[in-house]
């Protein structure tokens, strides 16, 4: 059984070493996860609903819009993706509004592994991260060697970030150590080959919980802690490919988890809600929840992201409304 901490950077590994006994066996991990405080579902939903009613105006709203733009992982994950479509998406990420160069860049462009090299070339020198889904996304139904090869291919092609999906079947059947070991193995596969010329040690790992399939809030809290113990740099709600994706209460719960994890270990982990966040109003609600739950330390693209494709267009429309006092016509933004 594993007794070591996954490759996660020397300082983080040191701090997590004190919790190595938690993952020393399946029984120990189960005891720890089931010993986490139970989630008050009514209280969680009521708190999220209350925070969701907060409104911000004028200067604060303008700041929130720009912050939300800078936190977007602009995404295309379709079977019909082409190099041309990826290059167009990258161009939009660099200059979301070609008529206004004060609009911030997005945080990342997220593509399938076979499109990573195309995105990397298109984004050269921009500072925008290249993210790639891996591990047999979105179902995650593949053997571990296949998942690791998928990850290594994405990293070798130049991915700065890898979004993996957990084995929900293993988690729901109580095989927590199996899920832990798989996340740890993918984390290790994110380490770059020495001398590859990139100057980067490892791709950041975002672990997708697919919260819509985890059935209970208690399971979401357990899965969040499990992913963080295994070395996740981010925990992410969803693939965006199932019926129920990101929700405000679930994101609040995951923010509570990363806040408590940092209080326990000293290690900060990011959060990424994905799927179904389409409007500026929605994005502002999420930013309020981040500030009120985890705190301002998470209000940066380094620690909070939106997994979205259509959100950017609404943010641009609302931004122009604040600037000019009127909404643009339907041809103001590109249709991705």
How does this structure look, described?
Helices cover 45% and strands 10% of the residues. The chain has 336 residues and is α/β, with parallel strands linked by helices. Helix 10 links the parallel strand 5 and strand 6. Helix 9 crosses helix 10 (217-230). The longest helix is centred in the last third of the chain and has 18 residues, at 248-265.
Task: Characterize this entry briefly.
This protein is α/β, with parallel strands linked by helices and 336 residues long. The protein has 13 helices and 8 strands.
Q: By helix and strand content, what is the structural category? A: alpha/beta
Percentage of residues in helical conformation: 40-55%
**Strand segment count:** 8
Q: Using the alpha-carbon principal axes, give the shape.
A: globular
Chain-averaged pLDDT: 90
Strand composition percent: 5-15%
Oligomeric state, counting identical vs distinct chains: single chain
Order of helices and strands: HHHHEHEHEHEHHEHEHEHEH
Write the layout of secondary structure elements.
Elements: H1 10-17, H2 26-34, H3 41-51, H4 58-70, E1 72-75, H5 83-94, E2 108-111, H6 116-122, E3 129-133, H7 144-156, E4 161-165, H8 168-172, H9 176-189, E5 204-208, H10 217-230, E6 234-236, H11 248-265, E7 270-272, H12 280-293, E8 306-308, H13 311-324
Parallel strand pairs: 1-2, 1-8, 2-3, 3-4, 4-5, 5-6, 6-7
């Amino acid at each position: 059984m594993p007794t070591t901490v996954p490759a996660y950077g020397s300082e983080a590994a040191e701090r997590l070493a004190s919790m190595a006994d938690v993952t020393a066996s399946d029984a120990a991990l189960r005891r720890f996860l089931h010993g986490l405080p139970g989630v008050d579902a009514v209280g969680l939903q009521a708190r999220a609903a209350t925070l969701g009613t907060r409104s911000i105006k004028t200067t604060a709203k303008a700041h929130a819009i720009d912050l939300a733009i800078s936190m977007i992982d602009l995404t295309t994950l379709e079977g019909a993706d082409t190099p041309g479509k990826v290059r167009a998406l990258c161009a939009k990420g660099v200059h979301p509004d070609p008529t206004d160069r004060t609009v911030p860049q997005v945080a990342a462009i997220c593509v399938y592994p076979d499109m990573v090299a195309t995105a990397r070339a298109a984004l050269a020198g921009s500072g925008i991260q290249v993210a790639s889904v891996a591990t047999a996304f979105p179902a995650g139904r593949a053997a571990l060697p296949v998942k690791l090869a998928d990850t290594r291919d994405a990293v070798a092609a130049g991915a700065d970030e890898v979004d993996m999906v957990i084995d929900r079947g293993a988690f729901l059947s109580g095989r927590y150590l199996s899920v832990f070991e798989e996340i740890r193995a993918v984390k290790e596969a994110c380490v770059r080959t020495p001398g590859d010329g990139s100057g980067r040690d490892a791709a950041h790992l975002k672990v997708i919980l697919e919260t819509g399939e985890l059935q209970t809030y208690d399971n979401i809290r357990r899965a969040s802690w499990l992913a963080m113990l295994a070395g996740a740099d981010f925990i992410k709600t969803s693939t965006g490919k199932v019926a129920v994706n990101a929700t405000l209460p679930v994101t609040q719960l995951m923010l509570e988890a990363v806040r408590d994890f940092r209080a326990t270990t000293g290690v900060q982990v990011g959060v990424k809600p994905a799927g179904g966040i389409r409007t500026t109003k929605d994005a502002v609600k999420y930013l309020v929840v981040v500030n009120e739950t985890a705190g301002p330390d998470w209000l940066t693209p380094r620690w909070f992201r939106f997994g979205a494709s259509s959100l950017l267009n609404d943010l641009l429309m609302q931004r122009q409304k604040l600037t000019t006092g009127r909404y643009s016509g339907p041809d103001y933004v590109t249709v991705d």
